[in-house]
Specification:
Layout: E1 3-8, H1 15-24, E2 28-34, H2 38-48, E3 51-53, H3 56-60, E4 67-70, H4 77-86, E5 90-94, H5 101-114, E6 118-121, H6 128-138, E7 145-153, E8 161-162, E9 165-166, H7 178-181, H8 185-188, H9 191-201, E10 207-213, E11 223-229, E12 235-241, E13 250-255, E14 259-262, E15 269-272, E16 277-280, H10 289-299, H11 304-332, E17 343-345
Helix pairs in contact: 4-5, 9-11
Length: about 350
């Protein structure tokens, strides 16, 4: 019997991607849809040939729903995922798990109590360049890492000129509503560089500094940078933006024995450990997060690394957001003085 899935909201831009993956996967079937926007939900349910439920409790009460895909507003994750796990449903959800560590705790507790799979969409964990870089680091080829820089940006907030005039960009307007998103470019797109930086260094940093930019004047950041600092002196730079027309995804790793570059701009992994740059083979990705989710459910296993990195991601995002807010508050009262950068320790204190 296939894994029977309910789609919970089509708020997120990736919701249709997951619905397509579920429809195409030989081991899954979409049977129901719920959406906080009833009109949108009915339209998507009709497209999928699935039942629409106007209330969340109704869809979670269905005995023929084994798992759910949660693509609600980020700020609704705690309520929706906790309810789904409490109803005994396996949960696949868009990142971040929740905006704060405190909100993550009841979600994880509910899934553990129910014995269900809880997995985040962290696709770059499974991409070939990540697998190759992890092998490279495991070999010790770069020595001790001293610097990591990862950038991911697109033009989603930039308008395009057409015969009908200039539009507002391809991201939906609700992506700029802090009441739904809990942030902008960093918490959305910057998640990927953030969890990769954490993954490659292999441990959490001791502190985070961040600054947000507002190029298009939205209520949330559309240009962001975070600096991670580790106790051994290593530094990580995470960059993200919605206002870059041609920015390639790029990774830089520098260590005491060598360096590695990916995507600057070609999608090649280059390694230099002896003064010469050489290309290292990049394997195919190990599967999509949704494929891994289905496998874990089928095998009765849990994606422990995925969840651990997802929880660390929330901690890092929460710290970065607090740091950026503190910087902007300080700048608002400046006259002719400058202010030092504000760093937020991961325990939550500001230094």
């Amino acid at each position: 019997m296939p894994l029977r899935i309910a789609m919970l909201s089509f708020w997120h831009v990736h919701a249709r991607d997951y619905a397509r993956q579920a429809a195409e996967h030989p081991g899954t079937e979409i049977v129901a849809v719920w959406d906080e926007d009833a009109e949108r939900g009915r339209d998507r349910a009709a497209e999928l040939g699935a039942d629409f439920h106007p209330d969340l409790a109704g869809v979670l009460a269905r005995a023929d729903v084994d798992a759910v895909v949660v693509t609600t507003p980020t700020t609704a994750h705690r309520e929706v995922i906790t309810a789904a796990a409490g109803a005994g449903k396996h949960v696949f959800t868009e990142k971040v798990l929740a905006p704060t560590r405190a909100e993550c705790e009841p979600i994880v507790a509910a899934a553990r109590k129910a014995g269900t799979v809880l997995m985040l969409a962290l696709p770059r964990l499974y991409d070939g360049y990540t697998l190759a870089i992890r092998d490279l680091l495991a070999e010790g080829a770069l020595g001790d890492l001293t610097s990591v820089r990862i950038r991911l940006a697109h033009d989603g907030a930039l308008g395009r000129v057409s015969p009908r005039g200039r539009d507002q960009g391809w991201l939906p307007e609700h992506f700029y509503d802090p009441a739904q998103t809990a942030g902008g470019a960093l918490i959305d797109l910057g998640c990927h560089p953030m969890y990769l930086a954490r993954l490659f260094v292999g441990r959490m940093p001791e502190s985070v500094t961040a600054s947000f930019g507002y190029v298009t004047g939205r209520a949330v950041d559309d240009n962001a940078v975070a600096v991670l600092r580790w106790s051994d002196g290593a530094l990580g730079v995470v960059e993200a933006g919605f206002a870059a027309a041609r920015s390639p995804f790029s990774v830089e790793l520098h260590g005491t024995r060598g360096s590695a570059l990916y995507g600057t701009p070609e999608e090649r992994l280059l390694v230099n450990t002896d003064g010469q740059w050489r290309e290292r083979a990049v394997p195919p990705r190990s599967g999509t997060p949704f494929e891994h989710f289905v496998r874990h459910v089928a095998e009765g296993t849990r994606p422990e690394e995925n969840l651990a990195i997802g929880l660390d991601l929330t901690r890092l995002m929460e710290a970065a957001t607090h740091a950026a807010q503190a910087v902007h508050t300080a700048q608002a009262v400046l006259t002719t003085r400058t202010t030092p950068g504000t760093t937020v320790a991961l325990e939550g204190s500001t230094t």
